[in-house]
Prior knowledge:
6 helices, mainly alpha, 2 domains
Amino acid sequence: MNFTMPLCQTAAGFARHTDPDARKREASRGTDAFANASLSTEALLMLAGLIAAIPLLLFAPGARRIPPSMFGLIQYAAPTLQFLIGVVIHREPFGQVQLIGFGAIWIALAVYALDRLWRAKVRRA
Length: 125
C-alpha cells in the first residue's frame, strides 16, 4: 500500500508547526487557515486526509472479493440513495421524464439480476 498521500498532510502540518516563523508569515499575509483555529481543530484538519483514506484503502480489497457483476449492481446504490435524499428530504423536483428514466434503469437492472439468478439456478441443477 502507498501511504504517501495520507501522510503528506500530516507531515506538512508538522513541518509548519516546527517552523515558528512560518505561522507569523502566513498570518501576516492572511493566508493561514489555522491562524485562529484551536489545537484540536488543527489536529483534526491535519488528520482529515488519513481519515478519508481509510475507507478507500479498505474498499479495494473488499471490491476484489465479490464477483464483478455484483460489484456493478452495488455501484447503483449510492446514486440511488442520493436521488432519494434529494427527492424525499430536500423536495427537489422530480417529473414524469425523470420517473421514466429512473424506472427504465432499475427495470433493466432487475432484468439483469433476475437473469443472473436464473442462470445460477440452471447451473446448479
